[in-house]
Write a structure and sequence with these properties.
alpha+beta, 5 helices, globular, Aminopeptidase, single chain, about 190 residues
Amino acid sequence: MRMAVPGDSAALLSIYREYIQTPITFEYELPSQEEFTHRILSTLACYPYLVWEEQGTPVGYAYAHRLGERDAYQWNAELSIYLSTAICRGGVGQRLYAALMELLRLQGVKTVCGIVTSPNPASEGLHRAMGFRLVGTRKHAGYKNGVWLDVLWFEKSISPHGPNPSPVIPISHLPREALQAVLDQFSLP
């Protein structure tokens, strides 16, 4: 497990391509490699973007982004994860999510959310296994492939919600040793 770099865009886009015709993503068309590179860079400006490699090849990734633009939302983050269908169900998703949440906790994030198209048994199972609770369902939230789709909202507190929280720290401001310790911890079998 490691942090993503802009040069990962082609490999990560290839993983994302596996989902573009499914209801798992609400995008209709595969973004360009240039757009995907931009997404990686804009995420890394504040949040972690993790890559799982097997034999030097990226086979999964997970990232976080701000949930809500107003300042009062800064202590929340939405998580996203995409795994190559060749490695699903091998525990990689749990490791990526666990590392992502630990990094976000170190940044000062208090609550994480997963927004999941329903039905999606694999993602629903991942969220439940990781201690998320279902807090709501948005009926007919999106239209794709000729059907209206519901979206499930999962939520988990990752640190206490005390008074006067410090602003969230950008991922690039975490000490390198702390970042590497988290990546190492969750990369081990």
